[in-house]
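TL;DR need structure tokens for one chain.
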Amino acid sequence: MDSPTVLCVDDHPQALELHKVTLESQGYYVKIASSGYSAMKMLEEAAVAAVLLEYKQEGMDAEAIACHIKQRFPKLPIILLSAYSDMPERILWLVDEYVMKSELPGGLVRTIERATRPYRLAPYSREQYLPSGAA
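>> reply
TL;DR here they are.
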């Protein structure tokens, strides 16, 4: 069976590398994007099973990225990652899961596993991970 692909979005290269190493060691394929703009381009080009999204980013913020993803890919799970414990409710409504950095790496791995479970159970129905109307 194919391993799920996770798209990690963060404007800090060191954090991206840490997430990539952590998730690849657990058998996931990982794509990385250093901005919301590059993440949106990647999502248009290839299906992924989940998006790991850093809350604090330069340029396009996490709320704008999550909103865009949910408009184009309504069934794609978004996992918000943050050092902040008190998140605005409006972003929590946009994401499927929330992980605090203090829970790394175990909490992140468990959350990614939970979010990608539907993909692993039905890998051949990947059209649900494609843009709306693009099947």
